[in-house]
Amino acid sequence: MPVQPRTGRLLVLATVFVCAACGLVYELELLALGSYLIGDSVTQASVVLSVMVFAMGVGSLLAKRLRTRPAFGFAAIEAGLALLGGFSAMALYASFAWLGESRPALVAFSFAIGVLIGAEIPLLMVLIQRIRRQDAGGAVADLFAADYVGALVGGLAFPFLLLPVLGQLTGAMLTGTVNAVVGGGLVLWLFRRDLSRRCRWLLLTVNAVVLAGLACATLLADDFERVARTAVYGGEVRVAVQTGVQELVLTGPSTGSPRSLDLYLDGRLRVSGYDEYRYHEALVHPAMTGPHARVLVLGGGDGLAAREVLRYPDVVSVTVVELDPGVVELARTDPMLSALNGRAYEDPRLGVVSEDAFGWLRGPAARARFDVIVSDLPDPGITPSTKLYSQEFYGLAARALNPGGRIAVHAGPLGTRPRTYWTVESTLRAAGLRTTPYSAGGRLSGFAAGPDRTLGAADAPPQDWGFVLARRDRVPELRVDRDTPALRAVSTRGLQDAARDAARTRLPGLPPSTLPHPRYS
């Protein structure tokens, strides 16, 4: 051995530390990308974690076959981990972009990476005992201590360093590079006498090929992203920005009619210039019947709900509470999106707060009461937004209403996800609000249709958007006033017909969704 036994043990433990950090980064990469590409982060996390933990057990059993050649086996496993983990993000994104489905790839990578991670510790146990024998309990304690500390570092590095600085693709490939260099370097230097000449050359060649592949992929990552993004969104991607909250993609020409614009948030079509007016008119104007001097918009950073509110000359102030300042900046500066929202952010009556809506409602700023609250939030089936459709959230919103104030809530599609819709309505009632459910038809583009990313949404048949109008003192009347600004898609008769149609689909007895017991899926 080229070093003292004490130094050799420290080098093995340092390798355990690095490999554990890399393994957890691969795991978090799969979790993040699975949630982004497929939706429903709880389901994707459960699938990835359960499959990976099971596979680790399989890997531990399979490692028994390599105990006679632990150095070669460990180096081969690390090369395989570097290859699979480094290319996992790119493979999942490619599967989604060109095949339209990434679930099989997610499960396959979770299993394969889990098997390789599970085989590491048994082989490292053999290697560390070859340096200097000690009792098995002490060796296991040292290995697991290094493993757990490395997992901590990897778990913190992913959200705070790799993801924001390098992105998912490059971050995964850099992690694979570190994995290959450290794992292969330990064996080829510290345990080189345990390898035949043929094995050394084989490992050198394999690691060189893996590193060369990762280096080339890193150089081509930007080009790959552009090509894959074109496959997903079409050929007119004008803006693609990863904010600290989500990915924003804006498609359509840079000049002409804003009706050709599409805005995607984390891959889900959130705004289509072709039919967004149907959604925003139906969401906003029924709530504006009555006093509406002070209006609060929760979400709606695209400025489109605010556009409808600001059409009323007697509105004194509009407060938009949007978590992602990147959406507001895009809505303010992009010429097509700002044209679509009527340059709402140039209106002096409009103010913006960049905070989480739940936290803001709990704070002192929400004590200034509002006549109207418009909840223009992502679909309740998208897990990060589930708390914004909880009984606790609606209780805070009700507290912020003036006497006689109204709250309008986007509750998801009534026709395709009735259980989710009626759970929202039940949750509003549990918060002490009286409700009037209704919907708006004619959703041709599929935006805000649900929690999952799906290709070809624009080819789907017309569906609907579901809404609930609520107030504290009595059941709100569903209508628009005569002095309401001219509308293209909403009328009192149409709203009342929609309310009757919605009432016929009611699912009675649904429990409300709460923070400790969310009911959406």
UniProtKB/TrEMBL annotation:
Pathway: Amine and polyamine biosynthesis; spermidine biosynthesis; spermidine from putrescine: step 1/1
Enzyme class label: transferase
Catalytic reaction list: S-adenosyl 3-(methylsulfanyl)propylamine + putrescine = S-methyl-5'-thioadenosine + spermidine + H(+)
Region (Disordered): 491-521
Membrane topology (UniProt): Multi-pass membrane protein
Binding positions (spermidine): H280, D302
Annotated InterPro entries: MFS_trans_sf (IPR036259), PABS (IPR030374), PABS_CS (IPR030373), SAM-dependent_MTases_sf (IPR029063), Spermi_synthase (IPR001045)
Swiss-Prot/TrEMBL keywords: Cell membrane, Membrane, Polyamine biosynthesis, Spermidine biosynthesis, Transferase, Transmembrane, Transmembrane helix
Residues of the PABS domain: 217-458
E.C. number: 2.5.1.16
Pfam families the UniProt entry points to: Spermine_synth
List of catalytic residues: D376
Sequence intervals crossing the membrane: 12-38, 44-63, 75-99, 105-128, 140-163, 169-189, 201-221
Gene3D superfamilies reported in the protein's UniProt record: Vaccinia Virus protein VP39 (3.40.50.150)
Any one of the GO BP annotations: spermidine biosynthetic process
GO cellular component terms listed in the entry, alphabetical order: plasma membrane
Superkingdom field: Bacteria
Family indicated by similarity: Belongs to the spermidine/spermine synthase family.
Subunit annotation: Homodimer or homotetramer.
Task performed by this protein: Catalyzes the irreversible transfer of a propylamine group from the amino donor S-adenosylmethioninamine (decarboxy-AdoMet) to putrescine (1,4-diaminobutane) to yield spermidine.
Protein name: Polyamine aminopropyltransferase
Organism: Streptomyces katrae
Gene assigned in the entry: speE
